[in-house]
Amino acid sequence: MTVPAPLAEVVSDFGAVQGQDKLKLLLEFADELPALPSDLEEAAMEPVPECQSPLFLHVDASDTEHVRLFFSAPAEAPTTRGFASILAAGLDGQSAADILAVPDDFYSELGLAALISPLRLRGMSAMLARIKRRLRATT
């Protein structure tokens, strides 16, 4: 699997823990979701209705070598926040080409399928798909 180094590190972190510790790690990521910049309002962001909880994202590809990704999800949606934070940690600041090359099912390497419902996992897939769609439309 070819993914940007920061995303490979996240995948490695999940690979290093087992069972319920994977959920704990996901919750740690949820707590680390970066806040939105003051000039970006949730109302201006794209909703991701495939997610079980409200999630909004914004893709800034004005510099295709350093794409910026922003996510907003409520604190009471830790799984969704965790997924968004994984994508932020692994893909924010990467080039459009590198993001577009990420396998659509990279999240299967996190080993969460036995712990999280397929419906929730589809939310992560939907986030990545929307990011890629935005990049294809703007690059």
UniProtKB/TrEMBL annotation:
Protein origin, superkingdom: Bacteria
Name by which UniProt lists this protein: Putative SufE-like protein
Domain named Fe-S metabolism associated: residues: 13-133
Species per Swiss-Prot/TrEMBL record: Mycolicibacterium sarraceniae
InterPro entries: Fe-S_metab-assoc_dom
Family the UniProt entry places it in: Belongs to the SufE family.
A Pfam cross-reference name: SufE
